[in-house]
Amino acid sequence: MFLLNGRRISGYGELRDLPPEAMERTEILNEQDSARFGFPATVRVVNFITKKQFRALTIEQGAGTTTD
Fold first, then answer.
1. DSSP tally for the chain: helices H, then strands E
2. Rounded to whole angstroms, how far apart are CA atoms 33 and 30?
């Protein structure tokens, strides 16, 4: 199971849009902490923590030509 800043997310697909530079750290929670979030003790819970003041600008550019 995955958490983002301590909140449950639907899956790893939500994390792929985040840039790696935005990640501060990753925590693997123990059995007691996973139970606190409502998961059984047998499930590993990974919590991804992002930086508080991260800002980024993403620019995409494309070029093309037309043919007859």
1. 1, 4
2. 5
Structure token digits, residue 57? 């600008």
48 burial via Cβ count (<10 Å: 0-12, 13-18, 19+): buried
Which tokens in the block code for residue 53?
Answer: 């003041």
Transcribe 35-46 into DSSP letters.
HHTT--TTS-EE
Q: 51 to each of 6, 12, 59, 62, how far by Cα in Å?
A: 13, 18, 21, 30
Alpha-carbon distances of 27 from 30, 39, 44, 47, rounded to whole Å: 9, 16, 11, 5
Q: Residues 26-45: pLDDT tens digits?
A: 999 888 888 888 888 788 88
Determine contact, residues 46/2, Cβ cutoff 8 Å. yes
